[in-house]
Design brief:
Elements: H1 2-16, E1 33-36, E2 39-43, H2 57-67, H3 75-79, H4 82-95, E3 99-103, H5 106-117, E4 123-127, H6 132-140, E5 144-148, H7 153-162, E6 169-174, H8 186-195, E7 199-203, H9 218-221, E8 231-235, E9 245-249, H10 251-260, H11 262-265, H12 272-285, H13 289-307, E10 319-325, H14 327-339, E11 342-343, E12 345-347, E13 357-362, H15 369-384
Helix pairs in contact: 2-12, 4-12, 5-6, 13-15
The chain binds pyridoxal-5'-phosphate.
């Protein structure tokens, strides 16, 4: 009875607060233009920043001929193929590290790394707006979680100075924040970590593939050494357009994760054909033209939005959120846009803080300039209208 009541009340509250979330159904491959619930719409909400989600089908089919479907076991049992090893090597080279360790998802990489590293008596320092998986990783560990104000390095330094006991310190931040699109001051975080003998871990889920001339990600884009940024997490499901994740680091850290990260050890390895296909995705990404095209699209959107005085949040990345505030209004705007053929998601609490609902507009190298200008025009008209 208690469970039934809990479930019913929680669901009722979600609806009443205009926070109900549900999946839309795609009937086409992912891309700038998709068929959603039977209707063709221009997609401005994927994390497919380079348009690579619809690129690798042929490579995957070829790889499946060789590797077939399943990995059959976890990496340490018998699921680790040559395709996994080659992908790990290529990812390490591309991001500028001696080693990389594959995980099934970014969520699992973050849980695995933080819970393997932080022990009782340790301190984990996280930006207030860090991704849920980083916060969950800290909850799962034995360390004590502290959250500093968003992008406020002074606050972090103050807190660190107040906690100089015997525990080890782990500083963790997103590079590009997933719901805000702004980028952490990674060089400054690296500097603070060095001053306080802390370990720095950066989740570059939205920076890998987009930051750096060839999408090398935060370490190379910010010109840091691997001792300045010793734990780097990248995901394969966003700019690389596939699925999976990796942690890039030095040899000792990679060995440590393989021995102690439970979300690496106790789960089935990625399908080897997928690992093989991700190598082709990486080769495509390394050409660099898609990053140039993405940056041109971001610049175009920003120029048109500034001309139309749209209330964009400060962001230079492919994530260009538009401030709305009220959840009901954000939902209304998203629904109106959908009727006009644009898919833009309304992001509401608890994903973002109360009162800060927004339209999370994401740009891709695959968008055409006319699609971007049509979106800005619709946004202008809708923002003038009242729901
Ligand atoms: C910043 C950040 N970290 C980690 C993840 C999780 O990655 P994955 O989707 O591969 O689980 C996401 C998004 O999903 C993210 O936005």
């Amino acid at each position: 009875m208690i469970w039934q009541q809990r479930v019913t009340t929680a669901l009722q509250q979600r609806r009443q607060q205009h926070l109900w979330r549900q999946c839309a159904q795609l009937d086409s491959a992912q891309g700038a233009l998709v068929e959603r619930d039977g209707k063709r719409v221009i997609n401005f909400c994927a994390n497919d920043y380079l348009g690579l989600a619809s690129f690798g089908g042929a490579a995957l089919a070829r790889a499946a001929q060789q590797w077939q479907l399943g990995s059959g076991a976890s990496h340490l049992v018998c699921g680790h193929s040559r395709a996994h090893a080659e992908l790990e090597h290529a990812l390490a080279m591309h991001t500028g590290y001696p080693r990389a360790v594959l995980f099934s998802t970014g969520y699992m990489a973050n849980l695995g790394v933080i819970s393997a590293l932080a022990q009782r008596g340790d301190h984990i320092w996280q930006d207030k707006l860090n991704h849920a998986s980083l916060l969950d990783g800290a909850q799962l560990s034995r360390g004590r979680l502290h959250r500093y104000r968003h992008d406020d390095c002074e606050h972090l330094q103050q807190l660190l100075a107040d906690h100089n006991d015997a525990g080890a310190h782990l500083i963790v931040s997103d590079s590009i924040f997933s719901m805000d699109g702004d980028c952490a001051d990674v060089p400054r975080l690296a500097n603070i970590a060095q001053q306080h003998d802390a370990l720095l871990m950066i989740d570059d889920a939205h920076g890998f593939g987009t930051l750096g001339v060839h999408g090398e990600g935060a370490k190379i884009a910010f010109n840091l050494s691997s001792s300045e940024l010793p734990v780097y997490v990248g995901t394969l499901g966003k700019a690389l357009g596939g699925f999976g994740a990796f942690v890039a680091c030095d040899d000792a850290m990679a060995d440590y994760l393989v021995q102690f990260a439970r979300s690496y050890i106790y789960t089935t390895a990625l399908p080897p054909a997928l690992a093989d296909a991700m190598l082709s995705q990486l080769a495509r990404l390394q050409q660099g033209d898609l990053q140039t095209q993405l940056n041109a699209n971001i610049a175009l959107f920003q120029r048109l939005a500034a001309g139309a005085e749209l209330p964009l949040m400060p962001s230079q990345s492919a994530i260009q959120p538009l401030t709305v505030g009220d959840s009901e209004r954000a939902l209304w705007l998203s629904q109106q846009l959908l009727q006009q053929g644009f898919w833009v998601s309304a992001i509401r609490p608890p994903t973002v803080p109360a009162g800060s609902a927004r339209l999370r507009i994401t740009l891709s190298a695959a968008h055409q300039p006319e699609q971007i200008s049509a979106l800005v025009e619709s946004l202008c008209t809708l923002l003038e209208a009242q729901p």
